[in-house]
Specification:
The structure holds two protein chains of two kinds. Chain A is of the alpha/beta class. Chain A folds into two domains: 220 residues, Rossmann fold, CATH 3.40.50; 65 residues, Alpha-Beta Plaits (2-Layer Sandwich), CATH 3.30.70.1150. In chain A, helix 3 packs across helix 4 and helix 8 packs across helix 11. The longest helix of chain A is centred in the middle third of the chain and has 16 residues. Chain B is mainly alpha-helical. Chain B has two domains: 234 residues, no CATH class; 202 residues, no CATH class. The radius of gyration of chain B is 28 Å and the shape is flat. Chain B starts with 6 loop residues before the first helix and ends with a helix. The chains are: A alpha/beta, B mainly alpha. The interface between A and B is medium-sized, with 33 and 33 residues.
Chain lengths: 306, 476
């Protein structure tokens, strides 16, 4: 549904993208992660036919983003980084205005705007001026703006920023619902927990390049290193640390626990036996699953070193 | 093809936004209604007095003048509205959402143009109506339909010029404040234009105003075309990455200066040292690529010479050629100018031309450099009218140094024109800034060909006076 091949983008002397390729299928959510200035927004702008690539090629729903830019813009919905609302308009008239730009028939447009306003619990404030609404409400209006023409592909830049937890959950559930209706969704976010929760695949961008791509599990497997385990003790961990030193890579230890990495988990029973033999009282042994944030930082750290 | 389905909702929204804010709409309405009433009252009160003084000559011209002022006040709103609409929207971060809509760049431009033109033009027409009605009711004076038509068209043309110029100005500013400051480049010429219009009305040269209208039409078309070019998604969003870094500008300029003209050069060219390559490869290439503007400028200089000659032969003022010869004989007929003075004058004229070309979209390149040819032609015409040989005059007074100076002026004119056009019509794939830097790099390269200016200055200071004396005084 969205295909990009070797996209580059140069602004004067600054290369914002240096060869990004990606593919998003219908019903799939791709999370674009990366530090500020990595090229996420430029990627979204090119894929939504707002900017032209300097080189490379991209299609959305089969339409070329350069040759058929207006058609691409009519099949995509874009939530921009900043809501960018007209403060003097009401939410309803603002959404109807964007629907008109998408040439929706009047009746359908009214129905659609009402449905979306109701879905996001904005009905009571629909006729208030946008300038008087809270940040979270404004973000919801901007999200509805991206959805008003029922696009097949969605580009969402920080979709839940400025929202309270309940609203953020509501938006996440809505996005999950959209995925079920076979839409392709690309989310650019700094919220890694959200990315892990929503995205089928994750793409990490740094300095205009795609430095890692895969499912969260694949990235963890590739970048998190050997599995991490945590041992908890009935008493102080000092004796255990001495016993394990040199046997495993100790990541952290505290008064009653040790966290370590071991390349072969089959060594764990032997390690536990040795500790018991040394008189260490063991409370529990559990594998610690790395979170996406750790993986992300490791990927970017590697990118920085390279 | 741009239809109105896209631009209309955009224009409607902006017009509603303008008129819906009473802090904006109320002063606009008051000025539109009250100012023409005051003007009509003043004109009605003063007319009998003026008629007593000069029998109606000036009196008849005060009404068009008043009508013009009444019509212009609402038109002046268009500049502010345009700056708000184009630069202000970017400042308020509301533009990007619009850019994601399916509207094409041209539709966005058209919608915004319609939005910022509709209220001022509508109010201007209303102001003219109020003025005409008040004059009729208060002083029993009628305004002819052709005058209403002329002033109405002038007002629309002024609004289009100001709005299109505001788009161009906004495209070069990174903020609304910057755009407001740059708007001086619009306000000053418009102020001059108003004075010219007022003068033409007051001296009773109404026909001249149709020429002004035609001129405004041409400028309007040029500016709208430029506006369409610069108001596009690429330019607007690329500006986010265009913080003014002199180092980057210098780097870009240096890379353009080093790049061979016309893209990929043969490999042997790449191996040449830069100074050699500039003369052996770059300059001939530049002359080949820009042969059309070079020919156009050369042709215009010939036209200037011919026009001057025609005016010279028609002029009621005639040179007394006998006195000129006598003055040459006693050595007071030719100004004493040295090499340095001539060279400085010529270089200064070309530098001023280059700078003004950027702001006049190349027009200054043509007009300023054409002026000396008109003057030379005018004097040749005077010479011919006095019964002397104009070709002999040109051969003596112009040809010696002109052999070097004219080709240099043609090249400078052509490349200044290219610099001016860099803003209006940047080559495909280049931003206005890149296009300007490219134009400047080309101009600098061609500057290497201005070596003849040094020779011309030497010849003009030392050889031409001798030739003149030899030709006209037989070598005395």
């Amino acid at each position: 549904m969205v295909e990009a091949f070797a996209l580059t983008k140069c602004f004067i002397n600054f290369w914002a993208l240096q060869g990004i390729s990606l593919k998003v299928r219908p019903g799939e959510v791709l999370a674009l992660l990366g530090p500020n200035g990595a090229g996420k927004t430029t990627t979204i702008r090119i894929l939504s036919a707002v900017l032209k690539p300097t080189s490379g090629r991209a299609t959305v729903c089969g339409h070329d983003v350069v040759a058929d830019a207006p058609r691409v813009r009519s099949v995509v919905g874009v939530l921009t980084e900043l809501p960018g609302l007209y403060d003097r308009m009401s939410a309803r008239s603002y959404l109807e205005f964007f629907g008109e730009l998408h040439r929706l028939p009047r009746g359908l447009l009214k129905r659609r705007v009402n449905d979306l306003l109701d879905h996001f619990h904005l009905g009571p404030v629909a006729d208030r001026r946008l300038g008087t609404l809270s940040k979270g409400f404004r973000q919801k209006v901007a999200l509805i703006r991206a959805l008003v023409h029922d696009p097949r592909v969605l580009f969402l830049d920080e979709p839940t920023s400025a929202m309270d937890p309940a609203s953020a959950r509501q938006v996440r559930e809505f996005i999950a619902g959209l995925r079920r209706s076979d839409r392709a969704i690309i989310i650019s976010t700094h919220n890694l927990a959200e990315a892990e929760l929503l995205a089928d695949r994750v793409a990490v961008v740094a300095r205009g390049r795609l430095v890692a791509e895969g499912t969260a599990a694949e990235l963890k497997r590739l970048f998190a290193g050997p599995p991490t385990f945590e041992l908890k003790f009935t008493g102080p961990a000092e004796a255990a640390r001495r016993a394990l030193d040199g046997e495993v890579r100790i990541l952290a230890f505290g008064p009653g626990h040790i966290r370590y990495q071991v390349a072969d988990p089959a060594r764990n029973p032997g390690l536990v036996g040795r500790l018991v033999g040394a008189g260490v009282g063991i409370l529990s042994l559990a594998e610690v699953s790395p979170n996406l944030e750790e993986v992300y930082l490791r990927i970017l750290g590697g990118e920085g070193n390279s | 093809m741009t239809g109105l389905h896209g631009p209309l909702p955009l224009a409607r929204r902006e017009v509603r936004d303008i008129l819906g804010d009473w802090r904006v709409s109320l002063p606009m309405a008051v000025l539109t209604a009250v100012f023409p009433l005051l003007l009509a009252f003043a004109v009605g009160w003063g007319l009998p007095l003026l008629e007593q003084l000069d029998g109606g000559g000036v009196a008849g011209r005060v009404i068009p003048f008043g009508l013009m002022l009444a019509a212009f006040v609402p038109i002046s709103f268009s500049l502010i509205l345009a700056l708000e609409s184009f630069a202000g929207e970017r400042d308020r971060n509301t533009l990007e959402a619009l850019l994601t809509s399916p509207l094409t760049d041209a539709e966005l431009f058209l919608g915004k143009m319609l939005a910022v033109l509709t209220p001022p033009v509508g109010l201007s027409l209303a102001a003219m109506g109020i003025f005409a009605a008040a004059l009729k009711l208060g002083a029993g004076r009628n305004i002819h339909l052709d005058l209403l038509l002329l002033v109405g068209l002038l007002s629309v043309a002024e609004a289009v010029v100001m709005v299109a110029a505001a788009v161009v100005v906004s495209s070069h500013a990174s903020s609304l404040r910057g755009a407001n400051i740059l708007a001086s480049f619009i306000i000053l010429p418009i102020a001059g234009l108003l004075q010219l219009e007022a003068l033409l009305f007051l001296v009773g040269e109404g026909r001249g105003l149709w020429l002004v209208l035609a001129g405004l039409g041409v400028v309007g078309v040029i500016l709208v075309r430029t506006g369409v070019r610069v108001f596009n998604r690429e330019e607007l969003l690329a500006r986010e990455h265009q913080g003014l870094s002199l180092r980057r500008v210098a780097q870009a300029f240096w890379s353009y200066l080093q790049a061979p003209p016309g893209g990929q050069a043969p490999s042997r060219v790449g191996r040449m040292p830069l100074p050699v390559r500039l003369y052996v490869y770059d300059l001939p290439q530049l002359l080949r690529i820009h042969r059309t503007p070079i020919l156009v400028v050369a042709g215009l200089f010939v036209v200037g010479l011919a026009l001057g000659y025609f005016l010279g032969t028609q002029s009621p003022y005639q040179v007394n050629w006998g006195r000129v010869r006598a003055a040459l004989g006693v050595g007071s007929g030719l100004p004493e100018v040295g090499f340095g003075w001539v060279l400085t004058h010529n270089l200064r004229a070309m530098a001023i031309t280059a700078v003004l070309s950027v702001f006049s979209f190349g027009a200054a390149a043509l007009l300023l450099l054409m002026a000396p040819f008109v003057v030379a032609g005018f004097i040749a015409g005077q010479v011919a009218a006095g019964g002397e040989d104009p070709l002999l005059f040109l051969a003596a007074f112009i040809l010696p140094h002109g052999l070097f100076e004219v080709p240099a002026a043609v090249l400078a004119g052509a490349f200044c024109l290219r610099l001016g056009l860099a803003i209006m019509a940047p080559p495909a794939g280049q931003t206005v800034g890149q296009s300007l830097l490219f134009g400047l790099a080309d101009l600098l390269k061609v500057g290497l060909l201005l070596v003849p200016l040094f020779v011309a200055a030497y010849v003009e200071a030392n050889v031409t006076p001798q030739v003149i004396r030899w030709v006209y005084l037989g070598g005395r």
